[in-house]
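Running low. Invent one:
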Amino acid sequence: MDNLDHPTPAQPELGDLQAQYDSLQQLVSSLLLVLIVISGTLSIFLLRQWRFVKADLDERTPQAAQMLMEHTNNFAVTQDFVKKVAEYGRTHPDFGQIAAKYHLSDMLVKPGSGAVTSSLPAAVTGKK
């Protein structure tokens, strides 16, 4: 009973294992080279896109600043108009119903909310 025959699995030859190892090493090296080429290509593409976007942004920044200043000026005029209409609505009860219907008093800038230009960048407001 002590003498059981256990067939040992066939051991691959050392030369076969060495060939598989060399093949695997060549495959890993090739994949690393492909990864370097792809990441380099992606880096060049992203660099070109960054240059195009930066040039476009530099071109449009003055126009955007001008539009923002116009909006700020118009907003102040609009707020002044709404304030006058709300005051008129308080003094004239007939118009007060219309002002209440359109919530004109709610559209006014609340005291303590800050100036309109406080959220503007320094380049737009003229501060440096």
Q: What stands out?
A: Confidence is low (pLDDT under 50) at residues 111-121. Residues 27-125 form one domain. The longest helix spans residues 14-91.
